[in-house]
Inverse folding.
C-alpha cells in the first residue's frame, strides 16, 4: 500500500532479524524505499552461533550475508551481536572471522561524506535473562576475557586498518 501510494521514497525501513530468510523478493521490495537499515542478529561464528541461535545453520547465514553484501548502496547492513556469557570469550575470534570474510559493505556505510560503522561488528550487552549476562562470570573468566581482548587489540593493530580519510574524519 505504501508503494502504491508513492510514499516509499520518503520512508526508511529498519529491521532486526536473525537473517535466516533473505531472498531476492525482499531485496527487490527494499530497493523501492529511501533507505533500509538491516541489523543481522549474529552472536558468534559457526557452531557457537548454532548453539546460541538454534536452529540457525551457518551455511545459510554466510550465504545470506554475502547476498546482503551485494545489495544496493541504500541498504545498510550491520552485524548486531548480543554480548553475553555464552559468547564473550569468543568475540575476538568472531570479529576476526568477520574481517577475514572480506565483506565490502557489512558494518560499513556512509553518513554524509563520512564512513561510519567501523567495519567490524556492532555489539550490545545482554542483561536479561540475568543467567546469560556476562556479569555472572567469575573473576578468572573475566581475566581470561581481558587477556583475549588485549591480544585482539594487538591483532587489529597489525591486521586491520581503515583508510587514512576515515581516521582524519573520525
Amino acid at each position: 500500500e505504501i508503494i502504491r501510494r508513492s510514499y516509499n521514497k520518503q520512508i526508511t525501513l529498519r529491521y532486526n532479524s536473525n537473517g535466516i530468510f533473505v531472498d531476492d523478493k525482499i531485496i527487490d521490495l527494499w530497493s523501492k524505499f529511501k533507505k533500509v537499515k538491516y541489523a543481522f542478529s549474529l552472536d558468534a561464528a559457526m557452531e557457537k552461533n548454532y548453539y546460541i541461535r538454534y536452529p540457525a545453520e551457518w551455511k545459510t547465514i554466510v550465504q545470506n550475508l554475502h547476498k546482503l553484501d551485494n545489495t544496493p548502496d541504500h541498504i545498510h547492513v550491520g552485524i548486531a551481536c548480543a554480548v553475553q556469557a555464552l559468547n564473550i570469550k569468543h568475540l575476538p575470534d568472531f570479529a576476526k572471522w568477520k574481517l577475514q570474510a572480506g565483506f565490502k559493505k557489512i558494518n560499513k556505510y556512509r553518513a554524509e561524506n563520512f564512513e561510519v560503522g567501523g567495519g567490524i561488528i556492532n555489539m550490545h550487552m545482554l542483561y536479561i535473562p540475568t543467567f546469560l549476562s556476562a556479569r555472572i562470570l567469575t573473576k578468572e573468566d573475566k581475566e581470561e576475557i581481558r587477556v583475549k581482548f588485549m591480544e585482539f587489540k594487538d591483532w587489529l593493530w597489525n591486521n586491520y586498518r581503515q583508510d587514512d580519510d576515515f581516521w582524519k574524519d573520525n
The longest helix spans residues 139-159. The mean pLDDT is 90.
